[in-house]
Amino acid sequence: MLLSVIQTDPQFGDVSANIQQAVSLMEGKRADLYVLPELFASGYNFMDRSELDQYAEPATGPTFELIARFAAAYSCYVVYGFPERADRIYNSSALVGPSGLVGTYRKVHLFYRETTMFAPGDLGFPVFDLPFGRVGMMICFDWIYPEAARSLTLRGARLILHPSNLVLPHCPDAMVTRCLENRIFTATANRIGREDRGGTDLSFIGRSEIVSPRGEIMTRLGETTAGAGVAKVDLSLADDSLNRYNRLLADRRPEHYKG
Amino acid sequence: MLLSVIQTDPQFGDVSANIQQAVSLMEGKRADLYVLPELFASGYNFMDRSELDQYAEPATGPTFELIARFAAAYSCYVVYGFPERADRIYNSSALVGPSGLVGTYRKVHLFYRETTMFAPGDLGFPVFDLPFGRVGMMICFDWIYPEAARSLTLRGARLILHPSNLVLPHCPDAMVTRCLENRIFTATANRIGREDRGGTDLSFIGRSEIVSPRGEIMTRLGETTAGAGVAKVDLSLADDSLNRYNRLLADRRPEHYKG
Q: Which residues of chain A register pLDDT less than 70?
């Protein structure tokens, strides 16, 4: 399968243009499964909860409609981040395929001012079976908690789809560790640009990437330009056999773990 | 406190010379706490269990006696790896101070042919209170299991002492992730050189290092030379407060973790 991470340069609040940029980048480089950034259509740096409320939409809202049309037209899958209006407002991602919504994930570990605006995710770390294999999602700051990728791996995910709006420098290299310690693929789609709003000035670091179970960086984009990174991946290579004596997951010893 | 990682070039089976090299390197650069490599006195690449049996010694055996004399003479602490003779033979590390043995750790995750010779550790991941703060130990391949460092962190360790005999290239960079995700210090003492014995040819990668809770590499040695790396560390900086909204450990959400 061809896997793609789409690195965009969203302008806060310019929803139509932001979606159009993502669609153009996807159309420019065909793939079977695309990952877009966190909150890719709305932008990230909401002033407060009432501003966030203006942009929140249901999982099958207008952004979904546009992406679902794309996925149907090109017979592909797309994962993207959006502010989800439900019982509360969540920082969510949706996995959409040719036949519509496959599933959603609600960010479990909220970062910084997100904690004042979004509700913490209440769905745990679900996995989904696609024609290519089993996948799961996490969003941005979830990377720093090894339990996120581990939980998905122990539920059988062979690929983690990771919409992000990274501002700290560490995640791209840390994802190599996530792949090695779980023997899975990861696809981190980040954004570039800057949002200086309401006294909070955030710059996003780009460096979207796809990493293999052996920790190889299969594609990694730059820090300042939008674009698409594509890698051909075979999810059956996400196998926990390290050598003839060690199976990474089977050799875990949970009776000695605290957590 | 001054923390030191000692990178040695042991020759298989030459126990006296291997200990002497470690002691010379420690004497050459004074510190409050030294970390030596895994199995630093015996060498690593045992042909089989009966050869291992010749080198195994109790936690208070002759290697301990020499190291304890050093720790008493210089009022310091030393951590080192050794093949521990007990009810079975374990791949262990000892923490020794001016007054003698503080505690031991038995490697929980055995690597490659170790699985055919050593018994898997049965003590879990204990922690120990030193004058500088609380510490824990893990050995070499334990690095690939995030549960090892996490378990120590959740028990209050602010520094992980990590005797190693690394052959794979990934650990030095992965330890940066271990520090970031736990907000702790780590000290990895590795060896250099090669052991080609009984059809198994192993080369060790050096790169011993000390890493801070912010993921800074405070010292990192080379791949081919023995030596000592020293860093001044303040364990009170191992604090889980990331910013005014996030506390790394307090923000964990175990109800959503599988493990």
A: none
B15 is written with which tokens?
């126990």
User: What is the value of pTM for the model shown?
Assistant: 0.98
Catalytic, out of B76, B140, B171, B179: B140
> How many domains, in total, are found in chain A?
1
Q: What is the ipTM of this complex?
A: 0.97
Q: Give the Cα separation of A67 and A137 in Å (integer).
A: 17
Short-list A162, A160, A163, A105, CA closest to A136: A160
Decide if B151 and A125 are in contact by the 8 Å CB cutoff: no
Q: Can you give the CATH number for the domain in which A61 is found?
A: 3.60.110.10
**CB-CB under 8 Å, A113 with B181:** no
Q: Give me the domain span that covers residue B29.
A: 2-256
pLDDT, tens digit, 9 for 90 and up, residues B205-252: 999 999 999 999 999 999 999 999 999 999 999 999 999 999 999 999
Residue B199 is classified by DSSP as T
Q: How far is A135 from chain B (nearest CA, A)?
A: 16
**What are residue A83's DSSP bridge partners?**
A91
Q: Which residue has the tokens 């010292």?
A: B219
- CB of A115 less than 8 A from some CB of B: yes
Q: Is A156's Cβ below 8 Å from some Cβ in B?
A: no
